[in-house]
What we know:
Strand content: under 5%
Radius of gyration: 25 Å
Shape: elongated
Number of helices: 9
Order of helices and strands: EHHHHHHEHHH
Amino acid sequence: MYLTEVSRFPSFSPFGIAKKRCVPKNFDLVSRSFDENLLRCLKTLRPGSDLPSISLDWLSRAVDFLSSTQLEAQALITDLKLSGVDDSLSWYLDYSVKLLDVCNSITSEIERLRQRRLLMNFILHLLEFPEDGALPASEKLQRARSSLTDWDNCTGGVAKRVFQNNIENLIRDLAIGLGKAPNRKLSTAAKLVRRTIYAVGSVMVFVAGVVQAALYGSVEVVQIRVPAEYMWAEAFNDLESAICGELKRRVGGQRKHLFDELDDMGTRVRGVCNAIDGLEGEDKGEKGKTIRNAVKELKTAIEAFSEGLDTLSNGVNNLFHTILCTRNGMLENFRLANEKQLK
Length: 343
């Protein structure tokens, strides 16, 4: 478990340091409104004191939360109408590229999981029952049994480990970047920008870390401990500790998969295998009943897995485009600022 203590403002505001200007009179209101919205959204990810289930549905909601936080931060910073750009822009652009790389790595793992779903569709075809209600042919049952074993033992191999190391390093770099603070005095408006970007960065590291851990089956999550000066710090730190603790518990419990839908599929796969193995010694009626029930449960689990995976994929794609549009908007602001300075 990697833990990064961060208590300083980040230095990756794309708008640089504001020139001397009047700060909006509602500065405190704007700042508090953003923090309250962030706190409220954090609480929806852990309603009450119950530990949220680490499922594709929860991961999708966490990704959507990150996207909305990005949009709120962009709107807040734009409303401040800061002018002037310093060398922090180049750092931010490098930072945003890493964010996009994280999205691409997660998408790659989602595609790998989709390939496993395709194999499962083939297996279900082998397990189709004839119209007369008889059992599938013995040859088909054995082919299905062999394919189910291959599916259950699938770990992704070397390619998966390479992608996993890449995304873990990216997230660790993002966490370290949150501690890079400017060594100069900031205006009140610029401080709000730093606080806002720090919030977005913290959420990004947390959500990306949990998603990669759940999808790749890793407990190596980079943690950010948010200082108490932020009103949402306690909710963030508690949620992060709870989720990371649950990931550790699942690994310690020898679960083969760290999110619910895939773990449930694995359970149903083994149930079908056991049903096929247990054909000997049962009467004909019981054979059909056992296999039918096991296959039905497997189909239900596959449907839940497919739906959840598609929803998560859409969420990650939306996040990618949100980051890309935000980055392009910042580059446009930089271009306009330079044009004004040259006039």
